[in-house]
Amino acid sequence: MLLKRFLLRYYPPGIILEYEQAKQIKTKSIDLLELSPESDIDALLDDISRREPLITPNRMNQVRQLIVKLQTKLSKKDDHKFYLFKILRAHILPLTNVAFNKSGSSFITGSYDRTCKVWDTASGEELHTLEGHRNVVYAIAYNNPYGDKIATGSFDKTCKLWSTEDGKCHHTYRGHTAEIVCLSFNPQSTLIATGSMDHTAKLWDVEKGNEVRTLSGHTAEIISLSFNTTGSHIITGSFDHTVALWDIHAGRQVHTFIGHRGEISSAQFNFDSSMVVTASMDKTCKLWDVRTGQCTGTFSGHEDEILDVVFDSTGQHIASASADSTARIYNAVTQTCMAKLEGHEGEISKVAFNSQGTQILTASADKTARIWDPNTGQNMQGVRTTPVASGDDYDDEVTVTMVTATNGENILCVTRQMSPSFKVIRRPVLCQLKLDENSLKVPKKNRCFLLFTLLND
Asked: 116 and 31, same structural domain?
C-alpha cells in the first residue's frame, strides 16, 4: 500500500487517507470524534502511529499540522444571528417536504400538486418542475454529496429518479402496493431505499432502474429509514413499535429492536454506525447497540410524544423534540440529560444540531424556530416565522430545515401548513468551513417555506 495524500474532514473531525493498492486508489479514514481544542496532540500521534501502518514516521509532521488545523476550526465560535433574506412562492397546493443539496446552492420542494420543483437558493429562481407523478409527491432527496440526481416518492406508489441538470426522469420504480412515505440514497449513490405504507421497504438500482430486493418483516407502515455511514446497513422504523436493522448486501434482517410501546417516529445511526437512537410516541428515546441488537439505555422525561431525535455529527450527543413543547439534550456516553430546552409554546416537530455541535435548531407549532446552546440550554435566538404583509393562514405547524454548507453558509428553511409562500434567510460567506448539511424533513400540508441567513453582528 502506498499513501498518496491526506484529505481533511472538519465535521466530524477526521483525516482521510488516499492510498494505492494493487493499482487501485482507495480511501480509509482516521476518525477523531473525541478531538477537542484541548486534546494532547502527542498522545494522538502516538495512538495513530500504532493503529495505522500507512502513517510512517516521515509523515507524522504532516499529520500534526492537520490535527492543529482541526483544533483551530473546533475552537472557533459561531455567534451570528439569522435575518430574513427572501420570501418565495412555491406551489399552488401545500408542500410536503424540502431537501438541500450538499453545498446548499439549490434545494427541492415536494407538494400535494403532484410535482417536485428545483430552486436556486441564492436567487430564488425556479430551475425545473419535475412532473409525472399521479398523486402527492411526499418524499424527496438529493443523492448527496454528488447532487446530480433527485429521487421522489409519491402516494401513487412509485418512486422516480430525475436529473438535476435538465429535470428529465431517468427511471420510474414500480413495485410498492401502497403510498411511499420515506426514501434515501445510499452514500455511494448506487441504491435508493423506499419505505411504504405497505409495510415493506425496497432497494432500487440507480443505474439500471430495477428492484434489487424487498425488505419484508414489519407488520405496519414504515415511516422512517436511514443508511449507515458506509452504506452496508439500513434501519427501518415502523408503526409496529419496532426498528429493524438490515444487511444491504445479504438482504437479511440482522436485528429487530424491540422495546418501545408506541409507534416509532424517528431512527438514526451515529457517525461510526455503532449505535442507533430511536424515538417513539411512548414518550421515550432508546439507544441500541448495533452489534448485539440490545437496548443500552432509555431516555425518559418528556411528558408527551417524541416527534424527532438526532445525533450530533460525532455521535456523542443526542437531541430529542417532543409534543410537550420542550427539547432535551443527552450525553450519549453517560446517558444523562445535559439540558432541557424550554420556551416554545407549541409542540416541537423537528430538531437539528449544526455541524460543529455548538448550536441546536428547533421548529415548533408556535410559529417560531429557535437556536439554542446545547451545553447551557440557553435560547440564543428566536426566529418569528409569520411574514410581514401576508394574509395567509399561519395557524398550523412550522418546521425547519438547516443546511451548513461548504462555504460556511447557514440556511434555515421554515415551512408552515397551508401557506402559499416561503421566506429565505441566507448567510454571507464569513469564514471558510468544510461542513456537511444538517437537514430536517418538512411534514405534510405545507405550501410555504422560509429561508433565513446569519447576520454578521
From this structure: no
Give the three cell numbers for residue 340: 432541557
State whether 315 and 357 are in the same domain. yes
> Would you give per-residue pLDDT tens digits along the chain (457 residues)?
889 999 999 999 999 999 999 889 999 999 999 999 999 999 999 999 999 999 999 999 999 999 999 999 998 876 677 767 777 777 888 888 888 898 888 989 999 999 999 999 888 899 999 999 999 999 999 999 999 999 999 999 999 999 999 999 999 999 999 999 999 999 999 999 999 999 999 999 999 999 999 999 999 999 999 999 999 999 999 999 999 999 999 999 999 999 999 999 999 999 999 999 999 999 999 999 999 999 999 999 999 999 999 999 999 999 999 999 999 999 999 999 999 999 999 999 889 898 888 889 888 888 788 889 998 999 887 666 544 322 233 334 444 443 333 333 444 454 444 443 455 544 433 222 222 333 333 333 444 555 555 544 4
How far apart, in whole angstroms, are the C-alpha atoms of residue 71 and residue 40?
Answer: 11
- The total of structural domains in the chain comes to 2
Nearest of 228, 140, 222 to residue 184 by alpha carbon: 140
116 plus 28 within the same structural domain = no
Largest CA distance in the chain: 67
| Distance between CA atoms of residues 247 and 382, nearest Å | 42
CA 166 to chain centre: 26
| Contact between residue 420 and residue 68 where contact means Cβ atoms under 8 Å apart | no
Q: Looking at the structure, tell me whether residues 32 and 126 fall in a common domain.
A: no
State the CATH number of the domain containing residue 234. 2.130.10.10
For residue 107, the SS3 value is strand
Residue span of the structural domain in which 20 resides: 2-75
239 Cβ contact list (under 8 Å, min separation 6): 220, 221, 223, 263, 264
Cell numbers representing residue 274 in the block: 455503532
Task: Give the predicted TM-score (pTM) of the model.
Answer: 0.84
Let me know: does 366 contact 331? Beta carbons within 8 Å.
no
